[in-house]
Amino acid sequence: MHIRNKQDFWAGLMFIALGLGFALGATQYQMGTAARMGPGYFPFWLGICLALLALVVTLSSLSRKTEETEVGRFDFKILAIVIGTVILFGLLLRPLGLYASLFILVVGSSMASHEFNWKVSVANGIFLVVFCWLAFIKGLGLIFPLWPSFLGMN
Amino acid sequence: MELLDNLALGFSVAFTLENLTYALLGCILGTLVGVLPGLGPVPTIAMLLPITYVLPPVAGLIMLAGIYYGTQYGGSTTAILVNLPGETSAVVTVLDGHQMARNGRAGAALALAAIGSFFAGTVATMLIAAFAPPLAEVAFKFGPAEYFSLMVLGLVGAVVLASGSLPKAICMILLGLLLGMVGTDVNSGVARYDFGIPELQDGIDFAIVAMGVFGFAEILSNLEQKENRVDITDKVGQLYPNRQEMREAAPAIVRGTALGSALGILPGGGSVLSAFASYTLEKKLSKNPERFGKGHPAGLAGPESANNAGAQTSFIPLLTLGIPGNAVMALMVGAMTIHNIQPGPQVMSSHPELFWGLIASMWIGNLMLVVLNLPLIGVWIKLLKVPYRILFPAILVFCTIGVYSLNYNTFDIFTTAIFGIIGYIWAKLKCEGAPLLLGLVLGPMMEENFRRALLLSRGDYTTFVTRPLSATLLGLTVILVILVALPSIRKKREETFVEED
Prior knowledge:
The complex is a heterodimer.
Chain A: H1 6-26, H2 41-62, H3 76-96, H4 98-110, H5 118-139
Helix pairs in contact in A: 1-2, 3-4, 4-5
Chain B: H1 2-14, H2 17-35, H3 41-52, H4 57-82, H5 91-140, H6 144-160, H7 166-181, E1 183-184, E2 191-192, H8 206-224, H9 243-265, H10 270-285, H11 297-313, H12 315-321, H13 327-338, H14 346-350, H15 352-373, H16 377-384, H17 388-407, H18 410-428, H19 433-456, H20 463-466, H21 468-485, H22 487-496
Antiparallel strand pairs in B: 1-2
Helix pairs in contact in B: 1-15, 2-4, 2-15, 3-4, 3-8, 3-13, 3-17, 4-5, 4-11, 4-13, 4-15, 4-16, 5-9, 5-11, 5-12, 5-15, 6-7, 6-19, 6-21, 7-19, 8-17, 8-18, 8-19, 9-10, 9-11, 10-11, 13-19, 17-18
């Protein structure tokens, strides 16, 4: 079997899985009747609708008349660096404080660019830390843990 | 004249120093975001939503609206000077706008875009003021069945009029509705799909989804493209269009405004479709269509006016019916609910100062943008030269800080990161994020009305088709879907959006 429209094929499978997943999850809640709906009723049928429509998407992606598409390559390096540094920021925010973790976020994520340069990203990091201090801490009064917790300065 | 009284109230609200400042701030931020390619209005508004928590509701909404139409102006600047659309609705502007710049008429192109946008903004603001009250009257007659059907029409209309695969877009809506189910069910108090995580009991914040799917995923896609061909036209030249350019552009501005205003009211119409439709219309009407794509003033002024008019009138369904027509309006619903304002027809009577103040500030904002953009063009050009490797970490920083300050919770940062990954996968599979966001915002409202309608009819599903208003709305939805599925129209639809790729 030749999959012509790869984008639609994989998207369809994903939607089927999600639709069935939500419908299955809904069966754990009370269904009730149409007149007195329980919390499971609406999401259950919504999930079924999604799965059915997705089935149509998947099947029509196999049809001979459909246009041919490919799924573009995933760049796992960029994905890992960008998402990784954001998660790292979330993990470090409480123990290290805003300034340090923000700086790590900027310099770390800069590595995802193909024109990465240490000097530029360090300068950018310092600039953004100062900018955030001015705009968010001084200007808007948002409350963050600012310094590393072991220093006991917060 | 009630209209004049209302407008007078609006201007008295909008002309306070505080609100003027926030309108200006919104316009500047919007222009900034619009000028920078790779950062659209959706993640920006999502990013800045938490900040507006501290502002009074009127000021917050005025600022967000300013960001929205500011991006329209800013986006066209980039489109004209760099041959890159600063944001989606400026895709069409690139075609003739950049060619004019190439011909040494960059200044004239910028001025025409600004004049067209301002004219369109003025007309559209008047239209909102005139048509919103009667429409809201109609909305008061709506029961839950009508609201449900209206939301179905709105959601389907939103994807029918947009580009891309229709079945996939409807799948994204359904998925958005399902994601909207996450959290505590208001009727029974049962926490749904929370996987035992306390943070999920409040539901998934749409700002998180917007930042992940639009902000992070966009960054990832941009970083992939190593070849960043930038071709900036530095020489702006004379800022005044000559007489012939004016003569060619003027009718296009009027037609574009009319077209944009009409399409903007339709759900999902908004600015992108208006711009495409106007370009097609101008090319059809023109005596020398071969000049299009080579720097015809009408090919720039028409779509520019249309997208601005469309952007403005897309506020009408939001303000009168409480139904967002596009992703930005979905965020505005969120902003209103944060301030305890339930969007819908009652806003006009319960918060007249907010309603009319917002409308008046739109006009003021448009004026500010003309003043802001033309003389400050040099500043924006400088900004265009900031390389992406400096820009994207800044976007990441603002997104993460924005997300964190929603609830002062690091869990939200992780959720956003996960939606970033999901958004990247969706981008690869060509699944659009906008329908998902609409579904997510409307999900709880839709379930509520669905339940209520069936409760009132004692579980009888025919209530949706036996009530005339509801039946009409559902009928329109069916007609829309059939129309789009027809082969001849499908081909036309593909043609209209062909330049987008």
